[in-house]
Write a structure and sequence with these properties.
Blueprint lengths: L15 H17 L14 E2 L10 E6 L5 E6 L5 H14 L5 H5 L14 H5 L3 H6 L15 H12 L8 E6 L5 H12 L7 E2 L2 E2 L7 H10 L5
Length: 225
C-alpha cells in the first residue's frame, strides 16, 4: 500500500506587520506622554499616605527650600496668558520698570525666589542661567514687607479671568525648613483671603496595622489579621 505523503507547510510567520504595529504604538506613547518638569530647586518633602493627584493647571506652587528660601511659580497650561497678567500686574503696581522682553521671559522662568529689587536682574537672564543662580527667596518673615502677598494677589486676579475662575494653592516645603517661614507663607495667603491650600508630600504606603490599612484590606478582599 503506498504511503500517504502529507504536504509540508511553511511554518514561518511574517513578523513585518507586527513590527509596524509595535513602532506605531511606540510612536503614539512618545508623542502623548507628558513628562513632569524638573523642580527649580531640590526639595525633600515629608512623607504621607495621601493618594490625591497633584494638579498641573490653574494652580500656584509655593516652594520652601531647606534654607528657608520661598519661591513662587504659577502652573497654567491651558491659558499661558495667566503668566503675562501676573507679571504685568506686579510690574505696574510695584513700579519695577520691567521691559517687554523681561516680562516675556517670566513665562520661561521656573520659579521666582528673589525680592522685587532683584526681579529685573532675574528676568534678564536666560532660563539656563537662572537655574545656576542661587535665589535668596521672597521676603515673608516680616508682615510689613511680606512680598509674597503681592504675588498671591496678582495670581488670584489673573486666574479669575480664566474659564475655571479658580486657583489651587500648593505648598511644597522641605522637611528641614523652619516653621517661621511656613507661617509667613500662610500669613500671605490669609491676607488674600485664601484659607485652603494643599501640602505637597512624598507618597508612601499605608501602614498595615493602621485603621486606614485595615479598611484598605477589606476593600481589596484580603483577610483581616
Amino acid at each position: 500500500m503506498p504511503s500517504v505523503k502529507i504536504p509540508k507547510k511553511n511554518t514561518d510567520t511574517d513578523m513585518t506587520p507586527f513590527v509596524d504595529i509595535a513602532f506605531l504604538i511606540l510612536s503614539f506613547f512618545i508623542m502623548a506622554t507628558k513628562f513632569k518638569p524638573q523642580d527649580p530647586v531640590e526639595i525633600t518633602t515629608p512623607n504621607s499616605v495621601s493618594s490625591q493627584v497633584l494638579p498641573t493647571d490653574n494652580a500656584v506652587m509655593i516652594l520652601i527650600t531647606k534654607d528657608n528660601a520661598v519661591m513662587f511659580s504659577a502652573l497654567s497650561e491651558k491659558d499661558p496668558g495667566v503668566m503675562d497678567r501676573i507679571i504685568q500686574g506686579i510690574n505696574t503696581k510695584r513700579s519695577l520698570g520691567l521691559s517687554p522682553a523681561e516680562m516675556a521671559n517670566f513665562r520661561k522662568t521656573p520659579a521666582v525666589g528673589v525680592p522685587f529689587t532683584g526681579l529685573k536682574q532675574l528676568l534678564s537672564m536666560s532660563p539656563e542661567d537662572q537655574k545656576k543662580l542661587r535665589q535668596p527667596g521672597i521676603p515673608v518673615l516680616d508682615s510689613a514687607t511680606n512680598e509674597l502677598v503681592w504675588w498671591i494677589n496678582e495670581a488670584k486676579s489673573a486666574f479669575a479671568q480664566t474659564s475655571a475662575r479658580t486657583m489651587k494653592i500648593l505648598i511644597k516645603g522641605d522637611g528641614n525648613s523652619k516653621f517661621p517661614t511656613f507661617d509667613g507663607v500662610v500669613s500671605a495667603l490669609k491676607r488674600n483671603d485664601e484659607l485652603k491650600y494643599n501640602l505637597v508630600t512624598t507618597p508612601e504606603d499605608i501602614p498595615a496595622n493602621s485603621e486606614l490599612g485595615r479598611m484598605k484590606r477589606e476593600v481589596e478582599g484580603a483577610p483581616k489579621k
